[in-house]
Amino acid sequence: MILCLDIGNxxxxxxxxxxxxxxxxxxxxxxxxxxxxxxxxxLRSAIRENGFDPGEIKRIAYxxxxxxxxxxxxxxxxxxxxxxxxxxxxxxxxxxxxxxxxPGEVGADRIADAIGAYTKFPDKNIIIVDFGxxxxxxxxxxxxxxxxxxxxxxxxxxxxxxxERTAKLPKVEIIKPSRTCGRTxxxxxxxxxxxxxxxxxxxxxxxxxxxNFKGEKPLIIGTGxxxxxxxxxxxxxxxxxxxxxxxxxxxxxxxx
Length: 256
Prior knowledge:
This protein has helices spanning about 35-50, 65-80, 110-120, 155-165, 185-210, 245-255; strands at about 1-5, 10-20, 20-30, 60-65, 85, 95-100, 125-130, 135-140, 145-155, 220-225, 240. By secondary structure, the protein is of the alpha/beta class.
């Protein structure tokens, strides 16, 4: 079995792969001061308590956008699994032609999304929208050129900003509202978060398509924690929650 980990700003998202398929997924809230023991104990417990043997993990691969946590991740893998993990970072084989002005600036999670996308949909122009702490938009050509994209504040960040920066607006559950015109403050915030993000995505993907694909419609993929909210929006051709894990899995194969 292979353990794949996506280390984000607020969560660790993991999956166990067996015979090229993810068979178990889990999440953990992260903080920058987390120790290798906390991570190692959590990983072994999560694996064991869900009916799997931690001793069957043969390889570990991860991508991280939180450099302060990488040392703890590496040490937890060595100490609790006896495995030197693979980290998706600049210099690793990706199968991509990265056209960013400075390729080293591209977040590892964005690269993992792109790898996962071209693995599933070769020979397609693709736009990926990843709803994480930040909502990231990636642009990938059928020739596996990673062109770049856009980054906007994520839905949770936007909700927290309203709560923290205003005197009377409350924290709300982030859901698809039953109507656009809210009849309460909570409904109004939920409407703004959902339809505001939907409008952002529609406009950015439209302009990207005109600029890069000469109006030819690319495949548009949604992924990340809040992607399921937009399943029936008509914007996405595919909703693939495991895309980043699939990309990490493929990357470790490329770098064997």
